Amino acid sequence: MTTPQPDGLRESLADLADVVEDADLYDRAVRRSGRIARREAAIGTVAALLVIGALASGLWRLPAGDRADEPRSVSGPVARASASPAPSAAVYAYQPAPTHSSGPGTTTQVLPRRHRSQPRIDEAPAKPRSRSLTDLPGHVFYRERGGKPDIVRLRPGDGRTHRVLADAPSPVGISPDGNRIAYVADGTLLIGGVSGGEPEPVAEGVGTAEQAPTWSPGGDRLLVDADQPAVVEVDTGTITPLPGDLGAGRHFRWSGDGSRLVYATESCGLEVARAEATEGTAVPVVGDPLPVDNPDGLAACRAGSVDATGRRVAVPLSTAGGEATPETADAVVDTTTGDLMALPVTGRVLGAVFDPEGNLLVRTLRQDTTTLSLIAPDNTLLVQAVEPAAVRDLELLAYTG
Amino acid sequence: MDAREADYAHFVRTRTHALLRSAYLLTGDQHLAEDLVQEALARTHRAWPRLERPENAEAYARKVMYHAQVSFWRRPRVAEVLPGEFDPDRAAADDPADAAVQRITLRRALLALTAKQRAVIVLRYFEDRTEAEAAQALGVSVSTVKTQTGRALDRLRDLLPDLRVLTEISERGR
């Protein structure tokens, strides 16, 4: 073991530190402390309500054998929530984890063991209602890796693929009905049909650096990056910037019912805003810089897709020490609690997207096989089928159920 | 202002500059350093009733600061070094006796380290902490501190081959 010459590095560091100017941070620190206190009070209220709700619902009467494995049981974390209102302790009761019957009249919700920096993956996946790809409704959209990717549509009904856009010049948005595709070329927002035809220009002065074109649930508006986050009316091309503090957000996504916007912040946190609001509410844990609140260092630098109500969002998850921000969502975050949703699948999650009805399509890799799993809003595993080899090297982009 | 708040205000106004010096080495930027220290001081304010002595307060604030800087991945946490901005050959060609040049070169080299590597360098060679103390401040094992320190020094030697600050001597039992 060696150490640098004390009179060298130490003096140089001291000399460099002399550059910093003194500052009076008292007022700033006290204001920040007040904001932390208000947030902790809000979280404490949620935790207390969880405890009351759990007691009222009889969850405390779960079998003793289930409570023994505390981290995997709903009852344990709820009990801890009463002692500590920390968000990571309070979140478990909200998890819509799959249910497994352990005997007549007895149902236990099971949470997986949580590995650092990894989304929860259910260790005992539910049995799907179907293992046939043909039972997967709608269309699945993929993109090639790298710049100017082709956009490909998979029709699960017959397993056939179709290229809907070659050499996409920007990130794209697939309309909720799966029939239109929006993208930007040379600052012009274009909308084309996925079955071909000449794209039509809709608006000028549009970028995609912090916002891919994102369709409203009704297909009549698009969220775009027009120097700031803005909404474009598809029929008229009218651009309206998002109001108030929303202008500082990025990667906005609508909930399936259009009532909420979920978006990322500059510091890789997430916020949720009502569609008519001028500011959002922070999603707990994710992006919180303090280890005590965010022990796994979870962060999300973009929102992927949102369920029907805005309660859950699929995100590309970043973690402490991560070197790059993935583009494809690989985890699902509860926007009320900030916790990761347990997925009733096995293998490594390659992608996860919600359709407007709140069904979640998860793409996983296990033993060189990629699988598509469709999970209903109540966490029922509807379909689980092997993905066609034709799309194996592509990235999951969107799903229209 | 009650006595407890007055004590906190006194702590902030007497220790902020010392905290900012470490924060500047961690972030490489005045504003980012202020943000980091502000967060640490705010957390210390929340914990103030539980802290019995000013020494405890500073230790708490520093621990918060290092944890916040090291354990959370966030892009704008350190000043950016633009591509091509760091040029070891150019740095070596400059007069090593020139303090300003050496300061700029060292800052750029520190920013080329990972957050954890930078933290162990600051803890060990600026704050003069032992490996055990550095491990405690970062919430990692001593072996992790040793590993990160070794990698950081190797990286600094690569980046600053001609600077005398990295002359090695044998470890003597710290």
SSE topology:
The complex is a heterodimer of chains A (401) and B (174).
Chain A: E1 2-4, H1 6-17, H2 26-57, H3 64-68, H4 75-83, H5 87-90, E2 99-103, E3 106-109, E4 139-143, E5 151-155, E6 160-165, E7 173-174, E8 180-185, E9 188-193, E10 196-203, E11 214-215, E12 221-225, E13 229-233, E14 239-241, E15 250-254, E16 260-264, E17 270-274, E18 281-282, E19 305-306, E20 312-315, E21 331-334, E22 348-354, E23 360-366, E24 369-375, E25 381-386, E26 395-400
Antiparallel strand pairs in A: 2-3, 4-5, 4-26, 5-6, 7-8, 8-9, 9-10, 11-12, 12-13, 13-14, 15-16, 16-17, 17-18, 19-20, 20-21, 22-23, 23-24, 24-25
Helix pairs in contact in A: 2-4
Chain B: H1 3-27, H2 30-47, H3 54-70, H4 88-93, H5 99-111, H6 115-125, H7 131-138, H8 142-159, E1 168-170
Helix pairs in contact in B: 1-2, 1-3, 2-3, 6-7, 6-8, 7-8
Q: What report would you give on this structure?
A:
Chain A is 15% helix and 31% strand. By secondary structure, chain A is of the alpha+beta class. Chain A has one domain: TolB, C-terminal domain (Neuraminidase). In chain A, the strands form seven sheets. In chain A, strands 6-5-4-26 form a four-stranded antiparallel β-sheet, with no helix packed on it. A four-stranded antiparallel β-sheet of chain A has the order 7-8-9-10, with no helix packed on it. In chain A, strands 11-12-13-14 form a four-stranded antiparallel β-sheet, with no helix packed on it. Residues 58-123 of chain A have low confidence and may be disordered. Mean pLDDT of chain B is 77; it is low at 72-77, 82-94 and 167-174. With 174 residues, chain B is mainly alpha-helical. Chain B is globular. In chain B, helix 1 (3-27) packs parallel to helix 3 (54-70), helix 2 crosses helix 3 and helix 6 packs across helix 7. The chains are: A alpha+beta (401), B mainly alpha (174). At the A-B interface, strand 1, helix 1 and helix 2 of A face helix 1, helix 2, helix 3, helix 5 and helix 6 of B. Strand 1 (2-4) of chain A pairs antiparallel with strand 1 of chain B, so a sheet runs across the interface.
